[in-house]
Amino acid sequence: MSEEPSSSTPDSSRSNDKSWLERLMTAFSGEPRSREELLDIIREAADNKVVEQEELDIITGALDVAGRQVRDIQIPRSQMVVIGIDDKPQDFLPTVIQSAHSRFPVIGESTDDIRGILLAKDLLPLILGGTDNFKLKDIIRPATVIPESKRLNVLLKEFREDRYHMAMVIDEYGGISGLVTIEDILEEIVGDIEDETDDDEDAFIRKVSDNDYIVKALTPVEEFNEFFGAGFNEDDYVTIGGILMRTFGHLPQRNEVAEIDGFKFRILYADSRQIHLLRLTPPG
What we know:
The protein is of the alpha+beta class and 284 residues long. Helix content is 36%, strand content 20%. The chain has helices spanning 9-29, 35-47, 53-66, 89-99, 125-129, 152-162, 182-190, 221-228, 240-248, and strands at residues 75-76, 83-84, 103-107, 114-119, 145-147, 166-170, 176-181, 205-209, 212-216, 257-260, 263-270, 275-281. The strands form 3 sheets. A 5-stranded antiparallel β-sheet has the order 8-9-12-11-10. Strands 1-7-6-5 form a 4-stranded mixed β-sheet. A hairpin with a 6-residue loop joins strand 3 and strand 4. Helix 1 (9-29) runs antiparallel to helix 2, helix 2 (35-47) packs antiparallel against helix 3 and helix 3 (53-66) crosses helix 7 (182-190). The radius of gyration is 27 Å and the shape is globular.
């Protein structure tokens, strides 16, 4: 008497795969389905190891981007690193070096007065040509301005077709509310994109010459004291920016200078609310 054939795991697996594939084909070739139904099918594919988790994350990110707007991911105005149209190279180069960004909005009298975009690579001729006849207005590129309501998938398509990588974002009143880059959108799809400069992104103090430093205003006083062997008050102040605000007695503007205990501070970047970046010469 022959035995009944036992159930076959490979056959069951092929049956499950076929069932899933049929459902996937139906999702794409049949009547339009909801986004959630499509995501459920793709998640099931990931559970069945037909789709890798990384692939699932990218698909999910791409679908999510299609339903979001620029206002959801823009870099807010208060965090923008900008350069003044009349700035001299000695004024803005430390900012370019410290931030390690590749593009910078160039402004006139205010942040709402966008004159163009500076590409860091366009500064290379300074190495050979010097700064005597240098003018920012001669090398900046036109700025693209978009509304906060623009959908991210539409903007990504424009970035690719028109070959630009940064756009300035305006609010409903026409004022600048922030900026967005192609990298910001891609990171929403594939996750954080790190490059060779990201290791130093959180550094509070950066040495740029033998006796010259770029210092973030948010540098903790304790860390500053330890780095420079200084003796600034750690009980009354949390950051170096706080000490400078006390010293100035007002919100300083770019290039204002203060000297404290032999440390010479020059404001490199400040907005209407706080100090962001300093140039420091320690006691000689």
